[in-house]
Amino acid sequence: MKTLYFVVPCYNEEEALPIAAQRISEKLDSLRASGKVSDESGVLYVDDGSKDRTWEMIEALHEADPRVLGVKLSHNRGHQNALLAGLMSVRGRADAAISMDADLQDDIDAADAMWDKFLEGCDVVFGVRSARTTDTAAKRTTAQGYYKLMRSMGADIIYDHADYRLMSARALDALSLYGERDLFLRGIVPELGFKTDIVTYERHARTAGESKYTLKKMLTLASDGITSMSMKPLRLLLVFGFVIFALACAALLFALIFSLCGGSFPGWGVAAISAWGAAGLVLTGLGVVGEYTGKAYMESKRRPRYIIEKELK
What we know:
This protein is of the alpha/beta class. The chain is built from 10 helices and 8 strands. About 30% of the residues are buried.
């Protein structure tokens, strides 16, 4: 019988964790009772450097049930690194792992369909939102725009999929081969290959507490996604620079012909527009190139993506 582990990254989730722990425990009990998963199946919570009582609560859950495991990172490393730490911790222990957040906005009942597809031979099963009715209009618009932007940049990203997914043991092994520091799992996992499928579900409102994904964190994730998965910004910059240069040449030719025909074209106007355009283009180019150069610099250091301070096995 196959072993399943839920992997749940947590950051200051003392309000949501008791509810999430109960719901996940009930789901595992249901799957065990139906004979779909082994009795060794469990859940692993990753404390991403929380400042509240999250880790104490994880320790208490482990004391009550040894099948509840925990990993405490030495300091906050961000959602993607915390999630990777959890997945790598259950690698070799589980036949498949389902990652989800502690806020239970992702419908845990969709795990049944994910597991069924795994038993049918799928190595990766993506949880895809059927609707965004719980999101604000602004968040819904920006999220949809983001997915479209990522697709246009050439990233193989699943529309309306966050980090609610099932991964088989060999998919986890393949993921372990990726060594980049700036992780964007939503773009990396689809690149693994293997047999994949999707399960749709309706996204719920957060069970308790407040979202830890601030606007700054969402923008950082968006930036990491684009620069980690696509070279198109650099290529677009090259095209943009060529277009600006072509327009400048056309404007210069027009000014020359206009002057030869007896017209009076203000030279200061051409100079001012050219200067501002050139300055904007240079600054834009430096910013894009700097972003990629900075990432290459950080990757070259080969620093650890996370450090585990404590582990409950």
